[in-house]
Design a protein that fits this description.
Length: about 250
């Protein structure tokens, strides 16, 4: 019995350490055959509305282009006329709330972006002075350039959307700022939390290991901070892990 508990504790600690490493290094998986990919070409308008239809004549997507970039409200639909995604763009960058649905109409993803902060961060990364206060993501950029830039790509936010049902957004660059939610196909909450200026910040709820475990705790500027609770699928507490500067410092198993 003691060996089993010890082994479980070691596994949890290994998971905690691995999470700190994988959080910024995990590769993204994106479906290049996304049904709503827009191919901008010579026939695309430089300015004006952009609309397409499914073979059944139902509207496929509806948006607007300004200076060859998506700009303004955007919405797309499945072939059965059920909403697929909805949001707003500013010069090709998403801003405000972005929603994605499952084919049966169940809400799948909620993301919140800021086009204004994206531009400000990009400018700061180019001209950052080490003695001037700035965005925390700029500090990350100084330590790990690739890790910071990964967080400014849309694929970072949707990398765990499922191998057989991946979501490929119509935009490549973005900055998360605000609410973040994932739902299971049956409508149950999967993950929720907030981003601040491109990094996770505040209290988060995360489902891991195909729903077999739940983790909840706080992030501070993209790093896990303080005490996190680890629960099984029945919401029974199985461990507490304390984080300092994103790394697990101690653990108690139950």
């Amino acid at each position: 019995m003691r060996k089993s508990i010890l082994l479980w504790g070691v596994c949890l600690l290994a998971h905690a350490y691995a999470y700190a490493q994988i959080e910024s290094l995990q590769s993204d998986e994106i479906d290049t055959d996304h049904p709503f990919t827009i191919l901008m070409g010579a026939s695309s308008p430089v300015n004006g509305p952009m609309t397409a239809h499914h073979p059944e004549t139902n509207v496929r997507y509806n948006g607007n282009i300004k200076n060859s970039l998506l700009h303004g409200n955007w919405q797309s639909w499945f072939g059965n006329d059920v909403a697929f995604e909805k949001g707003s763009m500013v010069k090709g960058i998403p801003t405000g709330e972005w929603k994605v649905w499952y084919p049966d109409g169940t809400l799948r993803f909620v993301r919140t972006y800021s086009a204004d902060k994206f531009q400000r961060v990009k400018q700061e990364l180019k001209r950052r002075h080490p003695k001037m206060p700035g965005f925390p993501i700029s500090d990350l950029y100084a330590k790990d350039r690739n890790s910071a830039l990964t967080r400014l790509r849309s694929s970072y936010s949707f990398r765990n959307s499922g191998i057989n049902n991946k979501y490929n957004p119509i935009f490549k660059d973005c900055l998360h700022h605000g609410q973040y939610i994932n739902y299971f196909e049956d409508g149950r909450l999967k993950d929720s939390g907030y981003y601040q200026n491109g990094l996770r910040h505040g209290v988060w709820f995360e489902t891991v290991e195909a729903g077999t475990a739940i983790e909840t705790g706080a992030y501070k500027h993209g790093q896990r901070s303080g005490t996190w609770k680890i629960m099984n699928a029945q919401r029974k507490l199985i461990a507490l892990i304390h984080y300092k500067n994103g790394k697990a410092s101690w653990q108690k198993n139950y």
